Give the backbone structure.
Amino acid sequence: MKRLMAFILTSLLLPAAAYAQATVPEPVLPAHAVKLQLNSGDTSWMLMSTALVLLMTIPGLALFYAGMVRKKNILATAAQSFAITAVITVLWAIIGYSLSFTNGGANHAFVGGLDRLFLHGLMPGVAHSLAPTIPESVFMTFQMTFAIITPALICGAFADRMKFSALLAFMTLWLLLVYAPVAHWVWGGGFLGSMGVLDFAGGTVVHFNAGIAGLVCTLVLGHRTGYGSEEMSPHNLLYALMGASLLWVGWYGFNAGSAVAANDLAGIAMMNTQIAAAAATVSWMFVEWAFAKKPSVLGLLSGAVAGLVAITPAAGFVAPDGALMIGLIAGVVCYIGAVWMKKLFGYDDSLDAFGIHGVGGAVGAVLTGVFATSSINSLGKGLIDGNPDQIYTQLLGLGYAGLYCAVVTFIILMFVGATLGLRVSPEEEMEGLDVTQHGERVH
Amino acid sequence: MATVPAEAGIGLLDPLIQTPVAVFELLSAAHANTLIFSVFACLAALELFRSSTGIVLYFARFAFAITVLAIVATVQYGDFLAAPAKAALSVIMAHQPAEGQQTAFITTLSLVTAGAAYHAGKANVQASRAPYRSTTHQARASAKRGVKAGDKPGRLVDLSLADRLLVRKMNTSRPIEAARPSKRMQTYQAPRNWS
């Protein structure tokens, strides 16, 4: 009787199982993807990190920049960060992610492919090969927040004088032609990553890239009207302080999240982030005190951001003493970059996008080559670990990224300038971008 | 973050040249040319709309509507401008078989010239609107600082803050009160008899 029952049950269930297999075929994964080995701890940390990095742009960077401009440009400056968040999100979903993080076939050394165009095929159960324990949707969104903040950082260089329409056009082209390829070069399987360039969370891809683009923008757009002859001090440093504080908190997600897992490396990255930011704040404060008589609030904020920028490429490669040294050095060098260099060369980098992000990114990248140690991360071996070649590799990475970014950014600016015009008119600049570009005022 | 290895053996300048070429190839493969062109045209129309007055406003609105239609059409028809553009280019090439190489250069030069003409025209329109007319007061204030009366508006950048405020006061064509609250702000305004 039992045998008969087993036979009947098997007869009934076997076709069902076969049918189930027939209706749910194994998905064909593109080259960059793997089957998800879900780890709920990793996933929850990455969800948290994604939110933290988005917090860095809105409201962090929006408040930081808005507090540092003049009263007539507050809304326009904050709106730039907000608008960029929306535009880049759409672009990233359409093609940006695909260009950065998929397999580019014959061109894989330079740019990704179209496997995730319109995020096609991004289904449950699929992970990116760089982060097999979290869903690819989470990885994609996490990387999206990086793509958002990078163009938003550039806005600090041309604050108070760029047309809103030109900004949107410039950022669209810049994401597709500069950010996506450079991110692919370093993280997506491109030639810089293969050469061994170390960039844990975006010192080269995000900060140096944004800083160089900011410098080019500054040179092409020219000075603000009245620069050097008029008072242009920050309108509300409390906004800037709130923004910088949000940036600092959000940077935990930026650096520790770049471990793409809730593991040892994430903890080390978080610890290094805090140490370097504090060290740079202290060193900037004392340098400013010594040269400008008083430690300014703006200096404290700038020092903190400089330290955060400099530790970004190194966060998951260096020991705490290395992080301390990177922070101390970054505070001094970025002070020179943001104060002395700007005066020496006479460019109007309004909110020090180049002075802090460009210089800080470069300092961090080079010092990663010095302080990286295989006792923290087996992928990184720097000068102190007996590998002086790493400094050369880091410099090569900076050279490629900087040169490419500068040339392409210049071409994009020329194109946008010829079609839409880059700058507002002198009258509009005098009246303020809040009124002329958005028809609103904050006060 | 770990990285996926790529193929080795690339030249020193290969990344700088091949990357933009590859990106453009991918954008073409994604049939995105018409979409990108339409989005740019849309932005240009909106910028023209923002900065224009009079009859140009109607033209800008019309241009905006056309570009929006073009963007919507790309959803249905994809890169529909690519074929006519290629056809037009081949017609030009056919007429100039010996100088085919120069066609791209001439086209680029023409586009740049058209852009420059647009800017020059726009600057003239702004000058003719004369938002900051030279008045006796302004001329007097400017004279103190050695600025010639009747200079282009761009010359006003040489004025001090106090002089600028004076100019602002004289500027009746565009007073600062012209900044109206947005529609959204208007909905938040309390009624007049609010207590």
The mean pLDDT of chain B is 67.
